[in-house]
Write a structure and sequence with these properties.
- The structure holds 2 protein chains of 2 kinds.
- By secondary structure, chain A is α+β, with helices and mostly antiparallel strands.
- Chain A is built from 28 helices and 22 strands.
- In chain A, the strands form 3 sheets. In chain A, strands 1, 2, 3, 4, 5, 6, 7, 8, 9, 10 and 11 form an 11-stranded mixed β-sheet that branches. A 6-stranded mixed barrel of chain A has the order 14-15-20-17-19-18.
- Chain B is built from 4 helices and 3 strands, in the order αβααββα.
- Classes of the chains: A alpha+beta, B mainly alpha.
- Chains A and B meet through helix 2 of A and helix 2 and helix 3 of B.
- Chain B: Residues 15-89 form the Transcription regulator PadR N-terminal domain.
- Chain B: This is PadR family transcriptional regulator.
- Chain B: InterPro entries: Metal_resp_DNA-bind_regulator, Tscrpt_reg_PadR_N, WH-like_DNA-bd_sf, WH_DNA-bd_sf.
Chain lengths: 900, 113
């Protein structure tokens, strides 16, 4: 424990240095009379404490001494300045602030422009930060939410983005992974809740989950019991938990509901409990929960649900990843039908991602780019305010000089400026927060549906802290600026200048020109960025989705388990389609299991073409699949490029015919695809290609066209018929269509609910929402920065002109033409502009790279955008220089010379 | 600075009291006070030397010249109580005694001018 004495000496010495440094804040009398002796004693105290109680003791004694020294400052200042004028000391902050407010009130124009400019910048920053904080920074609202992870698979070799879990893989993780204290399989489904007689059936969002859900998310039922592993076993009686809202709204918060049976999709399900209020998944809400069956017989099976897990205590993410990755090697031993070759060919791997990351990763780049954008706006606003402050400092230059000559300490001058800046910054931040609240509401209204965690966005304490930090930073910077101006050596010059009109000092002009250069450069980067986003947006709008969305409404209907006999589904759909077709104004009707760009996930599967001799180890090829009715292609205007259209006869005969997309035909079948045969796998029957349709954007407008297979809603040997379809109707407005369809459905089968109704135009707009939102935000930011930049340039140029009035008058008296004077002034503006734009162009090329991932078919160095932006800013600065130039050319020589 | 009839600030009283037994240097004053108050009052350096400066200004204590310093440590400044300071300390002690007696008797003493 006994350290060498040098340690104690070093600690004492360090404290002495800190003590003397802090002592500088004391007035001179204290520094001369007391500080050194006190520092020696403090060092001695630390040395003794260090010897007696080690590092902690030394630290405590040192801190106590320093705190004591700091607390003495106000009293010592009062003591020293007790006889001097009121408000001349640092201690008198209130007086200073009062004086600053009075001073600003005398110049309402200056004050309000500064406050508003700053307020705009701060509002933009606070609003975007509120979004960033809510979406990216706040932890998810579950106990120890950072321990929750998502488990997924990736098979780039199969051309699939991500594969979730199958019953087989979920059971494997449940049993094998030690790094998880709990694992849950989850799948969101749509289910129809049969109403009581006389009420309409309701469509619910139901979360099918295994029993691990409750441990993973730390949820305990408000009533009844949670699921147990036995609930997921094959043949277990179906059980459900009601969401709190559903229980309140549909069951009157009746506790007796536990133990009762409800009907979901025609199946009787026992309610075993009620969830607490606010239970949701990180990225979605649900109305009720049912137990997800996990059948060990399914083998590797079909990948249909998500896997989430909670890390076991003491296990970090890396070791969980390592364990899950190692487990992939053993897949063939769990699933004998899955060969190593297949896994290799598919480039199979598993991923373990923190749950928050899994939810927000896709919006992270966009949000940080927006945050950077508004930071630029704030910098431009701050440059404007700094410019104003410099003008003001110029005006007070003489006052400052006089006070310096009279012996005011620089610290006192600084305190004066600080008070004024603090008042400006606090007022600006107040305005900014008020504007931010409004802005945030507008943002939330405009934000794309894909923005996760909207519920977490708001003006939280962290956001206020952020605003306060901005205010403090601004106040400090603005206070320092005028001080740079008030060098003591300027005193004589300032006093002389003060007797005349005074010309701006070179240093100030340089500083102000530099500010304008910075503003222009920043503005150019922003405007270029928003130009690029706009170009992307345009390019996206120009993409041909392969269908015509105009005038088409999509209405979802779902059948329950009652339609079991062969042909029943087809009959129902045909009847429904015929009745809808006869409604007034309907130009076309068709149905499809999946709607292009709807973003509700899609079905995909492997297929093979007759006559292929594919090597065994080649990965299977995959196509998206869709089930349609006759009329679908015509209603959406999808091109039939070869072969014939689907007919009801095909559906009623349940014929084995399919339609393939152009990409599938070209890539895998070759010339003359019609009449060739394809099938899903060795076990499924061959189906004849009856036609080739144009490529349709199923997932995203900016995706490459993918191979797709269209089948009729019901076919003889291929699994279940499509029990849920979107009815696509071209013609009538949704407001007219939906009630009419409701009454048709009531006639046909009251148990079939209508759910989501959307127009295809909305669906396409939603797919572009991320791009259009980013483009809009960047557009607003650029407009702000352009305006602020123009104001900045205008301010500087007109200031210079005002300063040179006398000189210009002399020039004109000596015969200079008004035009020459104008040109000279504009030239001055242009010089600054050209430098600013040059810097901006270099910065733009460097900075717009971060937009790369958000851009579509436009390069970050797009000459049109960069050229156009430069030209635009050039015009703006010309316009901003023109007004002062005109004023300059109207200077009356006599007037100007009178002051000489 | 306070007059003789107003209460003496606690830390000044303690410093005068510490010096009443003989000259001390700053660090020793702090230790004496800390000991006497059972750790209830610790005079950290900035406060202590501020008090010493103030007391010296009104002439209640005085700095010893180097030659008279009792310790071998020439760097240290020693302070001693002046006759004025001793008088002030006694006044304060009597005043406090009066209050203490009154408290014991359970009533306030009559204010005497």
């Amino acid at each position: 424990m006994d350290a060498p004495s040098s340690i104690h000496d070093r600690r004492a010495d360090r404290l002495r240095s800190a003590y003397l440094l802090l002592g500088r804040a004391h007035p001179r009398g204290f520094r001369i009379g007391v500080l050194r002796a006190a520092a020696d004693d403090a060092a001695e105290a630390v040395r003794l404490a260090s010897m007696r109680r080690g590092r902690g003791g030394a630290w405590a004694a040192g801190m106590r001494s320093l705190i004591d020294l700091a607390l003495r400052i106000p009293a010592e200042r009062r003591r020293e300045h007790g006889s001097s004028r009121r408000g001349e000391s640092m201690g008198n902050a209130v007086t200073r602030v009062r004086r600053a407010i009075r001073g600003l009130a005398r110049r309402p124009g200056y004050a309000s422009v500064a406050v508003l400019t700053l307020g705009l910048g701060i509002a933009a920053n606070v609003a975007i930060f509120a979004v960033v904080n809510g979406v990216l920074l706040k932890p998810l609202k579950y106990p120890d939410s950072d321990r929750i992870v998502e488990v997924a698979h990736h098979a780039p070799g199969l051309d699939l983005p991500a594969l979730p879990q199958s019953a087989g893989t979920s059971l494997m993780y449940l049993r094998e992974v030690r790094a998880f204290s709990a694992y849950a399989a989850l799948e969101t489904q749509g289910r129809t809740l049969a109403g009581d007689p006389g009420t309409e059936a309701r469509r619910l969002t139901v979360l099918a989950a295994s029993s691990g859900f409750f441990s993973v998310f730390g949820v305990r039922p408000a009533l009844g019991r949670a699921f147990v592993p036995a609930d997921s076993e094959v043949g277990a009686p179906p059980v459900a938990l009601l969401g709190h809202e559903l229980w309140t709204n549909s069951y009157g918060s009746d506790p007796e509901v536990v133990g009762r049976a409800i009907r979901l999709d025609g199946e009787s399900v026992e309610v075993v409990g009620v969830l607490p209020p606010g239970t949701r998944l990180p990225d979605r809400d649900f109305d009720a929960m049912i137990a997800l069956p996990l059948d060990p017989e399914d083998g590797f099976g079909s990948f249909s649900h998500e896997g989430v897990a909670r890390l076991a205590p003491g296990v970090d993410l890396e070791s969980a990843r390592a364990e899950v990755t190692a487990l992939q090697e053993r897949i063939p031993e769990f699933f004998p039908d899955v060969g190593v070759e297949l896994l290799d060919a598919a480039r199979w791997r598993a991923s373990v991602t923190p749950a928050k990351e899994a939810v927000v990763a896709h919006v992270r780049p966009t949000l940080w780019i927006l945050m950077g954008t508004v930071a630029f706006v704030l910098l431009i606003a701050a440059a404007n305010v700094a410019n104003l402050v410099l003008v003001r400092a110029e005006a007070r230059h003489r006052e400052t000089a006089v006070r310096t000559a009279l012996g005011a300490a620089r610290a006192d001058l600084f305190a004066g400026f600080l008070a004024e800046s603090a008042v400006l910054s606090v007022a600006g931040t107040g305005v900014g927060l008020a504007l931010a609240a409004v802005t945030l509401r507008a943002l939330m209204a405009l934000a794309p549906d894909g923005l996760p965690r909207r519920e977490a966005i708001g003006l939280s304490p962290a956001v206020f802290l952020f605003a306060a930090a901005l205010a403090v930073a601004a106040a400090g910077v603005f206070a320092l600026l005028p001080l740079m101006r008030s060098r003591v050596r300027d005193v004589a010059g300032a006093l002389r200048e003060g007797l005349r009109g005074g010309t701006s000092s070179r240093a100030t002009l340089r500083a102000r020109n530099a500010l304008v250069v910075v503003q222009l450069a920043l503005a150019l980067v922003l405007v270029a960025g928003s130009g690029l986003m706009l170009r992307s947006f345009q390019a996206l709008r120009a993409v041909d989705p392969g269908f015509e969305p105009e005038g088409v409404t999509s209405v979802r209907v779902s059948l329950d388990q009652g339609y079991v006999e062969p042909g029943a589904v087809t009959r129902f759909y045909r009847e429904l389609q015929d009745r809808v077709r006869s409604l007034p104004g309907v130009q076309g009707v068709g149905m499809a299991s999946e709607v292009p760009l709807e973003g509700r996930g899609r079905t995909a599967g492997s297929f093979e073409v007759e006559g292929w001799d594919r090597p065994d180890d080649a990965p299977p090829v995959v196509a998206w699949r869709q089930r349609v009715t006759p009329g679908y292609l015509e209603t959406l205007g999808i091109a039939l490029e070869d072969g014939r259209l689907p007919l009801w006869a095909d559906a009623e005969d349940r014929a084995e015919v399919v339609w393939v997309t152009r990409t599938l035909a070209d890539r895998y079948i070759g010339p003359d695809p019609v009449g060739r045969r394809i099938r899903d796998s060795d076990e499924s029957p061959w189906m004849v290609v009856a036609g080739v349709v144009g490529d349709v954007a199923m997932d995203d407008l900016d995706d490459e066209p993918a191979p797709g297979v269209l089948r009729l809603v019901e076919t003889a040997d291929i699994g279940q018929p499509a029990m849920q379809v979107a009815v696509l109707v071209k013609g009538p407005e949704p407001a007219v269509l939906v009630p009419a369809m409701r009454s048709i459905l009531r006639d046909l089968d009251p148990g079939v609910p209508l759910s989501i109704t959307e127009s295809m135009v909305e669906i396409v707009a939603r797919d572009m929402a991320d791009t259009s939102f980013t483009a809009l935000m960047l557009g607003i930011a650029s407009l702000l920065s352009l305006t602020l930049g123009a104001v900045g340039i205008y301010g500087v140029i007109s200031y210079v002109v005002a300063q040179r009035t006398r000189e210009l008058g002399v020039r004109m008296a000596l015969g200079a033409a008004a035009g020459d004077v104008r040109a000279m002034v504009v030239r001055q503006g242009l010089t600054v502009t050209v430098v600013g734009l040059g810097v901006g162009l270099v910065a733009a090329v460097a900075i717009t790279r971060v937009l790369g991932s958000l851009l579509y078919e436009v390069s970050t160095t797009d000459p049109l955008v960069l050229g156009g932006t430069t030209l635009l800013l050039l015009l703006v600065s010309l316009a901003a220089s023109f007004l002062p130039a005109r004023r300059a050319s109207r200077v009356d020589p006599v007037e100007a010379l009178r002051s000489e | 600075m306070d007059a003789h009839d107003t209460p003496l600030k606690a830390n000044r009283f303690q410093v005068l009291l510490a010096l009443s037994e003989g000259p001390l240097h700053g660090f020793a004053i702090r230790e004496v006070v800390e000991e006497r108050t059972n750790g209830g009052m610790i005079l950290w350096p900035a406060t202590l030397y501020g008090v010493l400066r103030d007391l010296a200004e009104v002439g209640w204590i005085a700095e010893l010249e180097g030659a008279e310093a009792p310790d071998d440590d020439a760097r240290r400044k020693y302070y001693e109580l002046t006759p004025d300071g001793r008088g002030r300390l006694l006044d304060e002690a009597r005043r406090l005694e009066g209050w203490a007696a009154a408290a014991r008797a359970g009533l306030r003493p009559e204010e005497s001018g």
